[in-house]
UniProtKB/TrEMBL annotation:
SUPFAM superfamilies: Enolase C-terminal domain-like, Enolase N-terminal domain-like. The active site is at residues 153, 250. This is Dipeptide epimerase. Residues 134-226 form the Mandelate racemase/muconate lactonizing enzyme C-terminal domain. Its cofactor is Mg(2+). Keywords: Isomerase, Magnesium, Metal-binding. PANTHER family: D-GALACTONATE DEHYDRATASE-RELATED, ENOLASE SUPERFAMILY MEMBER DDB_G0284701. It comes from the Bacteria. It comes from Wenzhouxiangella limi. GO terms for molecular function: metal ion binding; racemase and epimerase activity, acting on amino acids and derivatives.
Length: 336
Protein backbone atom coordinates (compact mmCIF):
# COMPACT_ATOMS: atom_id res chain seq x y z
CA UNK A 1 0.00 0.00 0.00
CA UNK A 2 1.36 3.41 -0.97
CA UNK A 3 2.26 5.73 1.89
CA UNK A 4 0.83 9.23 2.11
CA UNK A 5 2.74 12.49 2.64
CA UNK A 6 6.29 11.16 2.59
CA UNK A 7 9.16 13.55 3.30
CA UNK A 8 12.32 12.85 1.32
CA UNK A 9 15.82 13.87 2.35
CA UNK A 10 18.98 13.10 0.37
CA UNK A 11 22.52 13.39 1.72
CA UNK A 12 25.91 12.52 0.25
CA UNK A 13 28.45 11.26 2.78
CA UNK A 14 32.12 10.60 2.14
CA UNK A 15 34.03 7.72 3.71
CA UNK A 16 37.78 7.03 3.43
CA UNK A 17 38.98 3.45 3.02
CA UNK A 18 41.52 1.91 5.39
CA UNK A 19 43.88 1.25 2.48
CA UNK A 20 43.54 1.77 -1.30
CA UNK A 21 41.50 -0.99 -2.91
CA UNK A 22 42.59 -2.06 -6.41
CA UNK A 23 40.53 -4.01 -8.90
CA UNK A 24 40.66 -4.29 -12.68
CA UNK A 25 40.83 -0.75 -14.08
CA UNK A 26 40.15 1.08 -10.81
CA UNK A 27 41.72 2.04 -7.49
CA UNK A 28 39.42 3.24 -4.72
CA UNK A 29 40.72 5.18 -1.70
CA UNK A 30 37.47 6.84 -0.62
CA UNK A 31 33.80 6.51 -1.40
CA UNK A 32 30.87 8.89 -1.65
CA UNK A 33 27.57 7.29 -0.63
CA UNK A 34 24.03 8.55 -1.08
CA UNK A 35 21.78 8.24 1.97
CA UNK A 36 18.05 8.43 1.33
CA UNK A 37 15.83 9.22 4.34
CA UNK A 38 12.07 8.85 4.11
CA UNK A 39 9.77 10.08 6.87
CA UNK A 40 6.07 9.45 7.40
CA UNK A 41 3.94 9.97 10.53
CA UNK A 42 7.01 10.66 12.64
CA UNK A 43 8.79 7.45 11.56
CA UNK A 44 11.89 7.37 9.37
CA UNK A 45 13.60 4.78 7.21
CA UNK A 46 16.95 5.01 5.49
CA UNK A 47 18.70 3.40 2.54
CA UNK A 48 22.25 3.84 1.30
CA UNK A 49 23.78 3.34 -2.14
CA UNK A 50 27.16 3.65 -3.78
CA UNK A 51 25.90 3.12 -7.32
CA UNK A 52 27.50 0.95 -9.99
CA UNK A 53 30.87 2.37 -10.95
CA UNK A 54 31.06 0.63 -14.35
CA UNK A 55 27.74 2.25 -15.27
CA UNK A 56 29.29 5.61 -14.35
CA UNK A 57 26.94 6.05 -11.41
CA UNK A 58 28.07 8.41 -8.65
CA UNK A 59 26.43 9.59 -5.45
CA UNK A 60 25.60 12.87 -7.18
CA UNK A 61 24.12 11.19 -10.24
CA UNK A 62 21.96 9.01 -7.96
CA UNK A 63 20.77 12.11 -6.13
CA UNK A 64 19.86 13.76 -9.43
CA UNK A 65 17.87 10.68 -10.49
CA UNK A 66 15.85 10.72 -7.31
CA UNK A 67 15.34 14.49 -7.36
CA UNK A 68 13.81 14.13 -10.82
CA UNK A 69 11.00 12.00 -9.36
CA UNK A 70 10.71 13.73 -5.97
CA UNK A 71 7.07 14.82 -6.54
CA UNK A 72 5.98 11.23 -7.20
CA UNK A 73 7.82 9.99 -4.11
CA UNK A 74 6.48 12.64 -1.74
CA UNK A 75 2.95 12.21 -3.08
CA UNK A 76 3.04 8.66 -1.72
CA UNK A 77 4.76 5.57 -3.07
CA UNK A 78 5.30 1.93 -2.18
CA UNK A 79 7.90 -0.63 -3.20
CA UNK A 80 5.77 -1.95 -6.07
CA UNK A 81 5.35 1.56 -7.50
CA UNK A 82 9.08 2.15 -7.24
CA UNK A 83 9.94 -0.74 -9.54
CA UNK A 84 8.28 1.16 -12.40
CA UNK A 85 9.32 4.64 -11.32
CA UNK A 86 13.10 4.10 -11.54
CA UNK A 87 15.32 1.62 -13.40
CA UNK A 88 17.60 -0.85 -11.65
CA UNK A 89 20.65 0.78 -10.12
CA UNK A 90 21.84 2.68 -7.10
CA UNK A 91 19.09 5.32 -7.01
CA UNK A 92 16.33 2.74 -6.84
CA UNK A 93 18.35 0.75 -4.30
CA UNK A 94 18.60 3.67 -1.87
CA UNK A 95 14.87 4.37 -2.15
CA UNK A 96 13.81 0.73 -2.01
CA UNK A 97 15.82 0.03 1.14
CA UNK A 98 14.46 3.21 2.75
CA UNK A 99 10.92 2.05 1.97
CA UNK A 100 11.62 -1.37 3.50
CA UNK A 101 12.99 0.28 6.65
CA UNK A 102 10.05 2.69 6.85
CA UNK A 103 7.48 -0.08 6.41
CA UNK A 104 9.30 -2.22 8.97
CA UNK A 105 9.39 0.51 11.60
CA UNK A 106 5.84 1.73 11.02
CA UNK A 107 4.49 -1.82 11.21
CA UNK A 108 6.86 -2.90 14.00
CA UNK A 109 7.91 -5.99 12.08
CA UNK A 110 11.50 -6.78 11.11
CA UNK A 111 12.44 -6.83 7.42
CA UNK A 112 13.03 -10.57 7.53
CA UNK A 113 9.43 -11.00 8.68
CA UNK A 114 8.12 -8.79 5.90
CA UNK A 115 10.14 -10.93 3.46
CA UNK A 116 8.68 -14.16 4.85
CA UNK A 117 12.03 -15.51 6.01
CA UNK A 118 13.15 -17.39 9.10
CA UNK A 119 14.91 -15.44 11.88
CA UNK A 120 18.30 -14.39 10.52
CA UNK A 121 21.51 -16.16 11.46
CA UNK A 122 25.14 -14.92 11.37
CA UNK A 123 26.67 -15.40 7.93
CA UNK A 124 30.08 -16.79 7.02
CA UNK A 125 31.46 -14.08 4.75
CA UNK A 126 34.45 -13.67 2.51
CA UNK A 127 36.99 -10.91 3.11
CA UNK A 128 38.28 -9.42 -0.13
CA UNK A 129 41.89 -8.48 -0.75
CA UNK A 130 42.51 -5.85 -3.40
CA UNK A 131 45.11 -6.58 -6.06
CA UNK A 132 48.67 -5.86 -4.97
CA UNK A 133 52.12 -7.43 -5.03
CA UNK A 134 51.88 -11.16 -4.25
CA UNK A 135 53.91 -10.83 -1.05
CA UNK A 136 51.74 -7.94 0.15
CA UNK A 137 48.54 -9.91 -0.46
CA UNK A 138 49.98 -12.92 1.34
CA UNK A 139 50.90 -10.73 4.31
CA UNK A 140 47.39 -9.30 4.45
CA UNK A 141 45.88 -12.78 4.24
CA UNK A 142 48.08 -13.96 7.09
CA UNK A 143 46.98 -10.92 9.07
CA UNK A 144 43.36 -12.11 8.98
CA UNK A 145 43.61 -15.31 11.06
CA UNK A 146 39.91 -15.24 11.97
CA UNK A 147 38.78 -15.07 8.34
CA UNK A 148 37.47 -18.43 7.13
CA UNK A 149 36.94 -17.29 3.53
CA UNK A 150 39.02 -14.95 1.36
CA UNK A 151 38.46 -13.47 -2.09
CA UNK A 152 41.31 -12.12 -4.19
CA UNK A 153 41.07 -9.46 -6.85
CA UNK A 154 42.92 -10.44 -10.04
CA UNK A 155 43.74 -7.90 -12.74
CA UNK A 156 45.24 -9.75 -15.71
CA UNK A 157 48.71 -8.21 -15.50
CA UNK A 158 50.67 -11.46 -15.68
CA UNK A 159 51.14 -11.81 -11.91
CA UNK A 160 47.78 -13.33 -10.95
CA UNK A 161 49.11 -16.88 -10.62
CA UNK A 162 51.75 -15.60 -8.20
CA UNK A 163 49.12 -13.74 -6.19
CA UNK A 164 46.97 -16.82 -5.80
CA UNK A 165 49.89 -19.10 -4.94
CA UNK A 166 51.24 -16.66 -2.36
CA UNK A 167 47.91 -16.30 -0.57
CA UNK A 168 47.25 -20.04 -0.62
CA UNK A 169 50.68 -20.64 0.93
CA UNK A 170 49.90 -18.08 3.64
CA UNK A 171 46.43 -19.52 4.31
CA UNK A 172 46.50 -23.22 3.34
CA UNK A 173 43.06 -24.10 4.72
CA UNK A 174 40.91 -21.07 3.98
CA UNK A 175 38.04 -21.07 1.44
CA UNK A 176 39.50 -19.14 -1.50
CA UNK A 177 37.72 -17.33 -4.30
CA UNK A 178 39.13 -15.10 -7.03
CA UNK A 179 37.44 -12.25 -8.88
CA UNK A 180 38.73 -10.92 -12.20
CA UNK A 181 36.16 -8.12 -12.68
CA UNK A 182 36.15 -8.74 -16.46
CA UNK A 183 39.96 -8.85 -16.78
CA UNK A 184 40.24 -11.98 -18.97
CA UNK A 185 39.24 -13.34 -22.31
CA UNK A 186 38.81 -17.10 -22.81
CA UNK A 187 42.46 -17.69 -23.67
CA UNK A 188 43.66 -15.87 -20.56
CA UNK A 189 41.18 -17.78 -18.44
CA UNK A 190 42.37 -21.11 -19.81
CA UNK A 191 46.00 -20.13 -19.28
CA UNK A 192 45.41 -19.27 -15.63
CA UNK A 193 43.22 -22.26 -14.75
CA UNK A 194 46.06 -24.71 -13.92
CA UNK A 195 47.42 -22.29 -11.31
CA UNK A 196 43.95 -21.80 -9.86
CA UNK A 197 43.38 -25.55 -9.65
CA UNK A 198 46.77 -26.10 -8.04
CA UNK A 199 45.93 -23.44 -5.43
CA UNK A 200 42.59 -25.16 -4.74
CA UNK A 201 40.54 -22.10 -5.67
CA UNK A 202 36.88 -22.59 -4.78
CA UNK A 203 35.24 -19.97 -7.03
CA UNK A 204 36.18 -18.01 -10.15
CA UNK A 205 34.12 -14.84 -10.47
CA UNK A 206 33.48 -12.84 -13.63
CA UNK A 207 36.49 -13.78 -15.77
CA UNK A 208 34.98 -12.38 -18.99
CA UNK A 209 33.80 -8.96 -20.09
CA UNK A 210 30.12 -8.06 -20.16
CA UNK A 211 28.69 -9.23 -23.48
CA UNK A 212 31.31 -11.97 -23.94
CA UNK A 213 29.63 -14.60 -21.78
CA UNK A 214 29.21 -17.00 -24.70
CA UNK A 215 33.00 -17.26 -24.90
CA UNK A 216 32.81 -19.41 -21.77
CA UNK A 217 30.57 -22.01 -23.35
CA UNK A 218 32.28 -25.40 -23.31
CA UNK A 219 35.12 -24.16 -21.09
CA UNK A 220 36.71 -27.10 -19.29
CA UNK A 221 36.72 -25.49 -15.85
CA UNK A 222 36.62 -27.65 -12.70
CA UNK A 223 36.18 -24.51 -10.59
CA UNK A 224 32.63 -23.11 -10.23
CA UNK A 225 32.10 -19.93 -12.25
CA UNK A 226 30.15 -17.00 -10.82
CA UNK A 227 28.62 -14.12 -12.77
CA UNK A 228 28.82 -10.64 -11.28
CA UNK A 229 28.88 -7.83 -13.85
CA UNK A 230 27.13 -10.17 -16.30
CA UNK A 231 24.00 -10.33 -14.13
CA UNK A 232 22.18 -7.20 -13.04
CA UNK A 233 18.54 -8.27 -12.52
CA UNK A 234 16.28 -11.27 -13.06
CA UNK A 235 16.23 -10.55 -16.80
CA UNK A 236 19.71 -12.03 -17.34
CA UNK A 237 19.35 -15.14 -15.20
CA UNK A 238 18.00 -17.63 -17.72
CA UNK A 239 20.64 -16.74 -20.32
CA UNK A 240 23.41 -17.58 -17.84
CA UNK A 241 22.22 -21.01 -16.72
CA UNK A 242 24.49 -23.01 -19.05
CA UNK A 243 27.46 -20.66 -18.69
CA UNK A 244 27.81 -20.02 -14.97
CA UNK A 245 27.30 -22.02 -11.81
CA UNK A 246 26.46 -19.10 -9.52
CA UNK A 247 25.24 -15.51 -9.68
CA UNK A 248 26.35 -12.63 -7.46
CA UNK A 249 23.39 -10.47 -6.44
CA UNK A 250 24.14 -6.90 -5.38
CA UNK A 251 21.47 -4.45 -4.31
CA UNK A 252 23.17 -1.55 -6.08
CA UNK A 253 23.06 -3.47 -9.36
CA UNK A 254 19.53 -4.84 -9.20
CA UNK A 255 17.92 -1.80 -7.60
CA UNK A 256 17.18 -2.81 -4.03
CA UNK A 257 16.11 -5.50 -1.62
CA UNK A 258 12.81 -6.13 -3.42
CA UNK A 259 14.48 -7.23 -6.65
CA UNK A 260 17.36 -8.94 -4.83
CA UNK A 261 14.99 -11.29 -2.99
CA UNK A 262 13.13 -12.06 -6.21
CA UNK A 263 16.46 -12.77 -7.94
CA UNK A 264 17.58 -15.13 -5.20
CA UNK A 265 14.39 -17.18 -5.42
CA UNK A 266 14.45 -17.25 -9.24
CA UNK A 267 18.13 -18.17 -9.43
CA UNK A 268 17.58 -21.03 -7.01
CA UNK A 269 14.63 -22.26 -9.09
CA UNK A 270 16.88 -22.26 -12.18
CA UNK A 271 19.46 -24.44 -10.42
CA UNK A 272 22.03 -21.68 -9.93
CA UNK A 273 23.96 -21.22 -6.72
CA UNK A 274 23.20 -17.89 -5.11
CA UNK A 275 25.77 -15.38 -3.90
CA UNK A 276 25.25 -11.97 -2.33
CA UNK A 277 27.81 -9.19 -2.53
CA UNK A 278 27.93 -5.45 -2.08
CA UNK A 279 29.74 -2.43 -3.30
CA UNK A 280 31.86 -0.95 -0.53
CA UNK A 281 29.53 0.83 1.87
CA UNK A 282 28.66 1.30 5.52
CA UNK A 283 26.59 -1.01 7.70
CA UNK A 284 23.52 0.84 6.39
CA UNK A 285 24.20 -0.78 3.00
CA UNK A 286 25.18 -4.10 4.53
CA UNK A 287 22.08 -4.62 6.69
CA UNK A 288 19.52 -5.13 3.87
CA UNK A 289 22.03 -7.30 1.98
CA UNK A 290 22.28 -9.39 5.16
CA UNK A 291 18.59 -10.22 4.70
CA UNK A 292 19.30 -11.53 1.19
CA UNK A 293 22.28 -13.42 2.55
CA UNK A 294 19.92 -15.68 4.48
CA UNK A 295 18.99 -17.23 1.11
CA UNK A 296 22.53 -17.54 -0.25
CA UNK A 297 25.21 -20.21 -0.63
CA UNK A 298 28.09 -17.72 -0.77
CA UNK A 299 28.26 -14.43 1.11
CA UNK A 300 30.62 -11.55 0.29
CA UNK A 301 29.48 -8.78 2.62
CA UNK A 302 32.68 -7.21 3.85
CA UNK A 303 31.96 -3.67 2.60
CA UNK A 304 32.04 -1.94 6.02
CA UNK A 305 35.27 -3.75 6.91
CA UNK A 306 37.08 -1.82 4.16
CA UNK A 307 36.13 1.58 5.58
CA UNK A 308 38.13 3.61 8.07
CA UNK A 309 34.86 4.35 9.93
CA UNK A 310 31.23 3.26 10.01
CA UNK A 311 27.78 4.27 11.15
CA UNK A 312 26.54 3.40 14.64
CA UNK A 313 25.20 0.90 15.42
CA UNK A 314 27.24 -1.21 13.03
CA UNK A 315 27.57 -4.79 11.85
CA UNK A 316 30.26 -6.88 13.47
CA UNK A 317 32.70 -9.48 12.16
CA UNK A 318 33.40 -12.28 14.65
CA UNK A 319 35.42 -15.40 13.87
CA UNK A 320 34.79 -14.95 10.15
CA UNK A 321 31.04 -14.46 10.52
CA UNK A 322 28.96 -11.35 9.83
CA UNK A 323 26.61 -10.35 12.65
CA UNK A 324 23.94 -7.73 12.09
CA UNK A 325 22.35 -6.34 15.26
CA UNK A 326 18.57 -6.09 15.31
CA UNK A 327 17.36 -2.57 14.72
CA UNK A 328 20.44 -1.36 12.88
CA UNK A 329 18.36 -0.51 9.82
CA UNK A 330 14.88 -1.94 10.32
CA UNK A 331 12.58 -2.58 13.30
CA UNK A 332 14.43 -4.40 16.08
CA UNK A 333 11.74 -6.59 17.58
CA UNK A 334 9.99 -9.64 16.21
CA UNK A 335 6.65 -7.86 16.46
CA UNK A 336 3.23 -9.52 16.52
Amino acid sequence: MALQSITLQLDVRSWPLKIPFRITGHVFDSLDLLVCTLSCDGVTGQGEAAGVYYHDETAESLRAQIEAVRPAIEAGIDRADLQDLLPAGGARNALDCALWALESRRGRRAAWQLAGLAPPQPLLTTFTLGADLPAVMAERAAGLPKARALKLKLIGDGHDAERVAAVRHARPHVWLGVDANQAFDRAATEALLPALVEARVDLLEQPCRIGEEESLRGLDCPIPLAADESVQTRRELESLVDLFDAVNIKLDKCGGLTEALAMAHRARALGLRVMVGNMIGTSLSCAPAFVVGQLCDIVDLDGPWHLAGDVAPAVDYLDGYLHCPAGLWDHAGAGP
